[in-house]
Amino acid sequence: MSNRRSFLKKTLASTTLLLPGSIITSCAEPGQKNSGEKFKPLILSTWDHGMPANDKAWEVLMETGNLVSAVEEGVKVTELDMDNLSVGLQGLPDREGIPTLDASIMKGDGSCGSVAFVRQVRHPISLARKVMEETPHVMLAGEGARQFAIEQGFPMEKEELSPKAKELYEEWKVESRYKPIVNIENHDTIGMIALGPDGKLAGSCTTSGLAYKMHGRVGDSPIIGAGLYVDDEVGAATATGLGESIIRICGSFLIVELMRQGRTPQEACEEAVIRLIAKNSKDIKDIQAGFLAINKEGEYGAYAVQQGFTYAMHHSGGGNLLNATYKL
Ligand code: SD4
């Protein structure tokens, strides 16, 4: 376990105690299924950092009733978290030493927006929302996305690595292994899905992607249907982990379609992981990927390829941090 993740685990209880509205009420053991309980409203987010993100999203939802603002503001907390090296400009850079970001946002009525391979933007999730609301397009990438950010009045940040990212990048450069590190410690994207009190759904997903990726590489997070999919008629799903493996199976769309055909969120996440393993079998030992899903009734599910995927859930009873069940 990396120092950072073990640090996170050790400090988790104390961190969450400081956050109003957050209580850990349960922590499922690996292998334990959720019991089919239902919650409305309900917010789920990937990984430990989903706890403070969910708190913020919940607060915004309670104050404004706006589910899209809730999922945007929630993940903005993670985009600013200097301890998170997989989200935001402080994240680990590509192999050229440049942080490039991917993000997407979606509403259950089919509206969606995303940005890929964008530089110098502190809140790519807000830029994705602008793409959704202010353009006729779904996705802007690279320099075009950056120019759009400037037009929309987003400040351009200096291209400087955060101190932690710089230190780790310097260490990586010694060997500069071309292959991205794909073990379970290299994933911390935040994906958030939410069910509002009126039964409408929304989701968001934001990441700096794989550490030391090739310049120009785009993962699953900004690809609607891969890293995120939301449909008010059925439910929502989001993904984290090795983006290439998730894109190959259109993971989030697959889960929503399986739920449409009658699977529970848990069953749908499990089937997606089985498909992902089948399509990525050669390297599966080195791959971690995890999915979260909610259906419109307020049932939820989570499943991962390997042990170690945590997710945060927030409902009217407060916040929980849970261990996802896993296949391998
Ligand atoms: C990607 N899915 O770019 C992202 C990485 C990730 O937790 O999830 N990290 O492939």
Number of strands: 13
How many strands, which pairing sense, and closed or not: the largest β-sheet? 8 strands, mixed
Relative helix content: 25-40%
End-to-end CA span: 17 Å
Using the alpha-carbon principal axes, give the shape: globular
CATH superfamily: (Glycosyl)asparaginase
CATH architecture: 4-Layer Sandwich
Overall tally of structural domains: 1
What is the helix tally?
9
Pfam family, one: Asparaginase_2
Signal peptide: 1-28
Keywords: Signal
Protein name: Isoaspartyl peptidase/L-asparaginase family protein
Layout of secondary structure:
Elements: H1 3-17, E1 42-46, H2 50-64, H3 67-79, E2 101-107, E3 112-118, H4 124-134, E4 139-141, H5 142-151, H6 163-175, E5 190-195, E6 201-207, E7 228-231, E8 235-241, H7 243-247, H8 251-260, H9 265-279, E9 289-295, E10 300-304, E11 310-315, E12 318-323, E13 325-326
Parallel strand pairs: 3-4, 10-13
Antiparallel strand pairs: 1-5, 1-11, 2-3, 2-6, 5-6, 7-8, 8-9, 9-10, 11-12
Helix pairs in contact: 2-3, 3-4, 8-9
Protein name: Isoaspartyl peptidase/L-asparaginase family protein
InterPro entries: Ntn_hydrolases_N (IPR029055), Peptidase_T2 (IPR000246)
Pfam families: Asparaginase_2
Plain-language structure description:
By secondary structure, the chain is of the alpha+beta class. It has one domain: Glutamine Phosphoribosylpyrophosphate, subunit 1, domain 1, CATH 3.60.20.30. It is 33% helix and 22% strand. It has nine helices and 13 strands. It has helices at 3-17, 50-64, 67-79, 124-134, 142-151, 163-175, 243-247, 251-260, 265-279; strands at 42-46, 101-107, 112-118, 139-141, 190-195, 201-207, 228-231, 235-241, 289-295, 300-304, 310-315, 318-323, 325-326. Strands 4-3-2-6-5-1-11-12 form an eight-stranded mixed sheet. A hairpin with a 5-residue loop joins strand 5 (190-195) and strand 6. Helix 2 (50-64) runs antiparallel to helix 3, helix 3 (67-79) runs antiparallel to helix 4 (124-134) and helix 8 packs across helix 9 (265-279). N-hydroxy-L-asparagine (SD4) is lined by residues 86, 187-189, 207, 209-210, 219-221, 240-243. InterPro entries: Ntn_hydrolases_N, Peptidase_T2. Pfam families: Asparaginase_2. Residues 1-28 form the signal peptide. Keywords: Signal.
